[in-house]
């Protein structure tokens, strides 16, 4: 995730900011530009960009009133909602303050997912290939999962205590709202980028035959656990349960990797020879993990970055930043995800 600059005072501002803490100007995220922009009020709840003259008039997404969105919409848009909030199909009853807090956790994570998908140039509507659009249900008393383009997230996943209880019960190394969203989006993009395409044979060679009974495979996994040698082929134990889950877990880890590397690049952090160097290390040439780097270049940076950050987390008494090991077979699967996405970009 990039950082941004306030257009009025030049201070560093961040993806979730709605106001510059130095000069007080309003800020908002323009999804069409993938940038935080500094705003000046033009009355009636409308804004223009700082020093842009008349320019395009903008307004905040209607969900800004709930404190869960800082994305902008063109004043002439037919929708009250930004392109990310438009993806919501169902949200919980906002008369309950606890639901509003939980929804904020969900929206912050979903915005980061949407940002990555937009930077990768991936479609949010599968209509172009005869598939359903991407939509979200954020529900009480629901099971987290994906079905035909609808990603359902249980409201309880926004509760840190409940999420940790679930993590321990499922013997997971990692569990977060953003992790859920990235994983479930993997199921959606399997529909768009793999199913019925020229990629299916290569997918089956790497991940296995997805036509295996899915329900039976999950029941077996939950009853018996993963095979003893799962760590030789998968990024996580759950990935060993079925080829669809292997793909979704691998997809999620690819998004983890590129977003963290993008953030490291912004802050000019790169582990070399077992320690961080700074200054000109990232400045030698442009580094765009979303668009230009080869997979080999990404993984060569990712592994030492995770080792260094794991060590730093331990020095603070925290759990590992990235509690996973990527075996060679899983790295090949990550490279396949990388290639499929880059091919989709070029179409």
TrEMBL record:
Domain Zinc-ribbon: 4-95
Annotated coiled-coil segments of the chain: none
InterPro entries cross-referenced by the UniProt entry: UCP012641 (IPR031321), Zinc-ribbon_6_bact (IPR011201)
Name this protein carries in UniProt: Zinc-ribbon domain-containing protein
